[in-house]
Amino acid sequence: MFGLNIKLLQLRNSQLVKSQYSNRPNTSFKDSKSIGIIFTSEGKTKFNSIKAFVKSLQDLNKNVDVLCFVPKNEENHEFKYDYFSENNLTLSGIIESEEVKKFEKQPFDYLYLLDFNINPFIMNVVLKSNAVCRVGFFSDESSQILDFMINASGNDYSREFEELLKYTKDLNHQ
After folding, report:
1. Which Pfam families would you find in this protein's record (predicted)?
2. Three-state DSSP class for 159?
3. CA 126, CA 16: separation in Å to the nearest integer?
4. What is the value of pTM for the model shown?
5. 109, 133 contact by CB (below 8 A)
6. What is the pLDDT along the chain (174 residues), one digit of tens a residue?
7. 121 with 141: CB under 8 angstroms?
8. Region of residue 50 (left: phi > 0; alpha: psi -120 to 50; beta: else)
């Protein structure tokens, strides 16, 4: 998996991390309208938890866009959401995908990164995103790119996603 193009992608990511700023005006969750979700396909259990999470947000009258990274040896379950894969990575370490470009341009009020471990593909999209507030689970990598994080206490995706939503609802940026 870690060929030259992956190394170039990681180098681009480290340059993007250095150029990040955290002075983005945040909206309270209650007033937010546009939500982005990005995740790595890791089996049917996680996929079903993502679907339930999307429904929870839609039930709160949020417009939700979802982007899935499908690694080698994984399935794109139901082809329900936009997706990209390692096949979209050029030799120069650039992700070439219309779905990714469209997702990155969206001015999401909140962007949920729903992976416990971040890969270079997801990291690159999050770093290029126009999202105002980026939320997800704590790790050394995520602490460089997310604005709000919680610790994942296990691998129960549904419970962890519910916890993340609970705490995000409490965010009231004034």
Report:
1. DUF6913 (PF21857)
2. helix
3. 10
4. 0.89
5. yes
6. 457 777 787 777 666 765 665 556 678 899 999 999 999 999 999 999 999 999 999 999 999 999 999 998 887 877 789 999 999 999 989 999 999 999 999 999 999 999 999 999 999 999 999 999 999 999 888 888 898 999 988 889 999 999 999 999 987 754
7. no
8. alpha
Question: Distance between CA 36 and CA 41 in Å, rounded?
Answer: 16
Structure tokens belonging to residue 153? 């206490």
Which distant-in-sequence residues (6+ apart) come within 8 Å of 126 by Cβ? Answer: 38, 111, 113, 134, 145, 146
Topology classification of domain 4-15+30-169 = Rossmann fold (3.40.50)
Q: Break the chain into its structural domains and give their ranges.
A: 4-15+30-169
Distance, in Å, from the CA atom of 84 to the CA atom of 86, rounded to the nearest integer, reads 7
